[in-house]
Amino acid sequence: AVKYKKVKCNLSKFHGIMEGNLFKWTNYWNGWQLRYFVLKDGILYYYNTQEDSKSGGYKRSFKISMFDIIG
């Protein structure tokens, strides 16, 4: 069995940028798709690719203040 560690994070104490590839559930036809995510200033942006993030054209964004890291 795989064991995961869960860590609570408060973005008010976080300064900087976190970015990288994650899998995002799209739908039952396409399933999980690799996407590029950027967490900056309390907003999580996602793009199809890292190259798309350089042009500034994100697909969607989410404002968040608390999140869990599971890994």
* Biggest pleated sheet: 4 strands, antiparallel
Strand order of the largest sheet: 2-3-4-5
What percentage of amino acids are in beta strands?
over 45%
pLDDT under 50 segments (min length 5)? none
What's the helical proportion of residues? Answer: under 10%
List keywords for this structure.
71 residues, 6 strands, globular
Gist of the model:
With 71 residues, the chain is mainly beta. It is built from one helix and six strands; from the N terminus they run E-E-E-E-H-E-E.
Write up this protein.
- The protein is mainly β and 71 residues long.
- The chain contains one helix and six strands.
- The strands form two sheets. Strands 2-3-4-5 form a four-stranded antiparallel β-sheet. A two-stranded antiparallel sheet has the order 1-6.
- Strand 2 and strand 3 (31-40) form a beta hairpin.
- It is globular.
- The model has no long low-confidence stretch (mean pLDDT 81).
